[in-house]
């Protein structure tokens, strides 16, 4: 690497900047354009203190989530009988920690399922250090979302700060975002970046549609909020892609619209009720499209119809290609499970299909997905 000294920098500056540089030094005026903040918008913090304002307003609603299991009993050596079966002794209590955020004045907290999964005890730590027991209201392993509630003593009516849930559907690639959480136990750490991509399918489940961001996300950030520049929650920070366990600028968050669609179910039943179609599907490729006489690889191929399921009752067959679900185009293979899953059981939907290359419409009544089917 070439080493530059002050003389080199000065000479280069004069060679390439020339007259404007001399003008600055002589007049005291800067080269800043008249309308320096013209590029700042509602979604850009450039030239503003917007990030600072959002953090000041929302940081207090971010919490630490600490989970633990009961003390395990192990068999230790009996000093009176070294060759005997041993005596019971307490083992270490496995613990975990992550982040979360309060979503209403009742004290409901959103976090990741993997932060509290298998825990016997969950505690919430507020921004001021106060700790509360937390009740696990409901969990959804399929989307890695959990809903907790802060347990307060009788008479404790102090207002709880909470966040507004935004609309992740309107999120744009390149938009600025803020992540707040407790990476490596460092409480209330703020990082910023942009949305790198949307709808990422990582193969971790049928409902994958992650927001990808380069805002630093590390172990302990799980469950914390991803905010837009208006301070609205647009995602739940969930995981990183890394070879060494540390941040490399590729983090993923669950879109908040996905969480909003299941919070009511978690409050009511502690689990999510999803729709079930009763088919196995395959991605439509160029080769498959050609073999089916299609001009382009659109839609989703049905490669199996489960007996006595809603699809069979509706008349769907193996080899049908679904191109529209309830009026919505299927431009992506992974869209169908999400559409079916969010359809209320008992609702009848229209499926536009191609059968032997010809358009056909069928009506199917969606049923409730059972745990074994999930």
UniProtKB/TrEMBL annotation:
It is an enzyme of class 3 (hydrolase). Residues 66-100 are annotated as: Disordered. Residues 263-357 form the PDZ domain. The keyword Chaperone does not apply. Keywords: Hydrolase, Oxidoreductase, Periplasm, Protease, Repeat, Serine protease, Signal, Stress response. Residues 69-78 have a biased composition (Basic and acidic residues). It comes from the Bacteria. It is found in: Periplasm. It catalyses: Acts on substrates that are at least partially unfolded. The cleavage site P1 residue is normally between a pair of hydrophobic residues, such as Val-|-Val. GO terms for molecular function: oxidoreductase activity; serine-type endopeptidase activity. It holds the Pfam family PDZ_2. Its EC number is 3.4.21.107. GO terms for biological process: proteolysis. GO terms for cellular component: periplasmic space. Its main location: periplasm. The active site is at 114 (charge relay system), 144 (charge relay system), 222 (charge relay system). Signal peptide: none annotated. Substrate binds at residues 114, 144, 220-222. The keyword Oxidoreductase applies. Belongs to the peptidase S1C family. NCBIfam families: degP_htrA_DO (TIGR02037). This is Probable periplasmic serine endoprotease DegP-like. The lineage of its organism: Bacteria, Pseudomonadati, Nitrospinota/Tectimicrobiota group, Nitrospinota, Nitrospinia.
């Amino acid at each position: 690497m070439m080493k530059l000294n002050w003389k080199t920098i000065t000479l280069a500056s004069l060679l390439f900047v020339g007259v404007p540089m001399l003008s600055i030094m002589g007049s005291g005026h800067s080269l800043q354009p008249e309308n320096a903040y013209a590029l700042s918008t509602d979604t850009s913090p450039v030239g503003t203190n917007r990030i600072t304002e959002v953090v000041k307003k929302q940081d207090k609603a971010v919490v630490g989530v600490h989970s633990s299991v009961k003390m395990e009993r192990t068999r230790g050596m009996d000093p009176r009988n070294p060759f005997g079966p041993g005596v019971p002794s307490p083992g270490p209590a496995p613990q975990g920690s992550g982040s979360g955020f309060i979503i209403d004045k009742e004290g409901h907290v959103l976090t990741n399922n993997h932060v509290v999964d298998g825990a016997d005890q969950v505690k919430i730590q507020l921004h001021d250090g106060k700790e509360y027991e937390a009740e696990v209201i409901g969990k959804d392993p399929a989307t890695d979302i959990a809903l907790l509630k802060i347990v307060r003593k009788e008479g404790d009516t102090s207002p709880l700060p909470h966040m507004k849930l935004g609309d992740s559907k309107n999120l744009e690639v390149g938009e600025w975002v803020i992540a707040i959480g407790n990476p490596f136990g460092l409480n209330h750490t703020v990082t910023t970046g942009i949305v790198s991509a949307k709808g990422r399918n990582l193969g971790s489940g049928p409902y994958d549609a992650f927001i990808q961001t380069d805002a630093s996300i590390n172990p302990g950030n799980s469950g914390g909020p991803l905010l837009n520049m208006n301070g609205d929650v647009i995602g739940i920070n969930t995981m990183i892609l890394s070879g060494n366990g540390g941040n490399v600028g590729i983090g993923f968050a669950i879109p908040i619209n996905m969480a909003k669609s299941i919070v009511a179910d978690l409050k009511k039943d502690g689990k999510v009720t999803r729709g079930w179609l009763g088919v196995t599907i395959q991605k439509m490729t160029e080769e498959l499209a050609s073999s089916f006489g299609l001009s382009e690889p659109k839609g989703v191929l049905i490669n199996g119809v489960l007996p006595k399921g809603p699809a069979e009752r509706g008349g769907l067959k193996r080899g049908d290609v679904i191109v529209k679900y309830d009026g919505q185009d299927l431009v992506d293979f992974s869209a169908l499970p999400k559409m079916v899953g969010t359809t209320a059981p008992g609702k009848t939907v229209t499926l536009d299909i191609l059968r032997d290359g010809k358009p056909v419409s069928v009506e199917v009544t969606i049923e409730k997905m059972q745990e074994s089917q999930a």
